[in-house]
Amino acid sequence: MGIRDDIEGDWHASLAALAWHVDLGVDEVIGETPINRYDLPETTRAAAPMASMGNVTAPGAANAAQAVKPPTDQAEIDAVEAARAAAARATSLAALGEIIAGFDLCELKKGARNTVFADGNPAAHVLILGEAPGRDEDIEGRPFVGRAGQVLDRMFAAIGLSRGADAPEAAIYTTNVLPWRPPGNRDPEPGEIAMMRPFVERHIALMNPRVIVVMGNTPLYALTGQKGVMRARGTWTTALDRPMLPMVHPAYLLRNPIAKREAWADLLSLQSRLRAKN
C-alpha cells in the first residue's frame, strides 16, 4: 500500500510539474545538443525529440542522423564545386553578378540585405579586392562606401586614381571576396572563403586588371593561401598570373593611424608600377 501511494504521489507530482511548465509556455522538451531536423529523414524526425531528452537516446536515432548528415568538409567541397560550375557559366561581369546573386549555398546570404558585387570602372587597370561588406555596404549594395571606403577613396585620389574616372589608367575597380555581410562584421570563415573563391577567380578573369591590390588578410588568404598581411604588405608578388600588391585594409588605418606611413609607401609603389607599364 505504501509503495502504491509513493507511485501515485510521484505521478501526481510529475503531472503538476508538467502543467506548470505548460503554463509557462514550454511547448517541447530539448536537450543540450541541438538537432537539425532538416538533416533527418522523415521517418526519424518524429524520434528526434526523444533522442534529445537528457542522456536518453532513441534507438537508432543518433546513427540515422550521422548516416544522413555529410561531414562538414564534404559539404564544403560540394559547395565549392557548385560555385565553380556556376562561375564558369558567366561570360560577362553582368552575368557573373546575376549568378552570384542567385547562389544560395552560402549561409551568409540569408542574413544579408543586399548582394554586394562591385563598384568603379570595370575597364580600370587596378582591381582592389577587399574582405567582405560591412553595415553600410550591406545597406547600399556597393563595396567600400562606409568610413573605410572614404579613406580608400582619399588614398587612391592621392596618386591620381578614382572609381569615377573614365580613363582606365586613372580608374580603380573595387570588389570583395565575400558578396554578403558576415553577422556582426566577423571575419570570414575558411569555408566561406573557399566557397566564394571560384567567383573571385572568374571575376578577375572577366575584368582582366593589369594589377591586383588585396586589402586585408581575407583577400590575401583567398588568392595565395597565406596569412599575415602586415608581413606581406608592400611586397609585390603574383596571383592568378597577375602582379599583386598586398596592403592593409582602410579600416585598419582608422584604428591605427600610425600605419598610414606604410600605406603611403605602398601607394607610391603602385603608382611607380603603373607608370612603368604605360
CATH superfamily of the largest domain: Uracil-DNA glycosylase-like domain
Unreliable stretches: 43-72
Q: Quick check: average pLDDT?
A: 84
Widest β-sheet, arrangement of strands: 1-3-2-4-6-5
Structural class: alpha/beta
Write the H/E string, N to C: HHHHHHHEEHHEHEHHEEHH
Per DSSP E runs of 2 or more residues, the count of β-strands stands at 6
Share of residues in helices: 40-55%
Backbone CA Rg: 26 Å
Which word captures the global form?
A: elongated
For the record, the count of structural domains works out to 2
CATH class of the largest domain: Alpha Beta
In angstroms, what separates the terminal alpha carbons? Answer: 102 Å
Kindly describe this structure.
Strand 5 and strand 6 (242-247) form a beta hairpin. The radius of gyration is 26 Å and the shape is elongated. A six-stranded mixed β-sheet has the order 1-3-2-4-6-5, sandwiched between helices. The chain has 278 residues and is an alpha/beta fold. The N and C termini lie far apart (102 Å). The protein is built from 14 helices and six strands. 31% of the residues are buried. It has two domains: 36-69, no CATH class; 72-277, Uracil-DNA glycosylase-like domain (Uracil-DNA Glycosylase, subunit E, 3-Layer(aba) Sandwich), CATH 3.40.470.10. Helix 5 (72-88) packs parallel to helix 10 (190-207).
